[in-house]
Amino acid sequence: MNNQVVSSLVWAGLMVGSAAALTALEGAGILPDGGERGFGVVMGLVLAWTGNMMPKWGADKKCASDGEAFRMKRFAGITMMLGGIGYAVAFFVAPLEKAPYWAMLPVVIALLVIFLMVLTKRRIV
């Protein structure tokens, strides 16, 4: 197996294992809102990991040059990583009733910034 498959399987195991552990802790009364809050943090970390992996994936053939493709992927990866960290922090800090709404804000902003960068194809990085 290559490195990407192993890494993806580790993250999938982390997601399933953390959801099961946090739900068990919530059921036992140890963590009252641990399942939902903890899984939101894990999902934010998965988004950050995906953003971190974006520049390492193959080059897009629609770009004028490999350098341009790498710059665009690096910028998009950094932006998605920051959006994922913002998602995780929002789920960790915000009141649970409002956490899903606050958590989506950094992700939506990151996606809009990436979309605008692709539309303009400016050298941002």
Automatic annotation (TrEMBL):
Parts of the chain that traverse the membrane: 37-54, 75-94, 100-119
Domain of life (superkingdom): Bacteria
Keywords, sorted A to Z: Membrane, Transmembrane, Transmembrane helix
Record-given protein name: Transmembrane protein
Species for this entry: Parvularcula lutaonensis
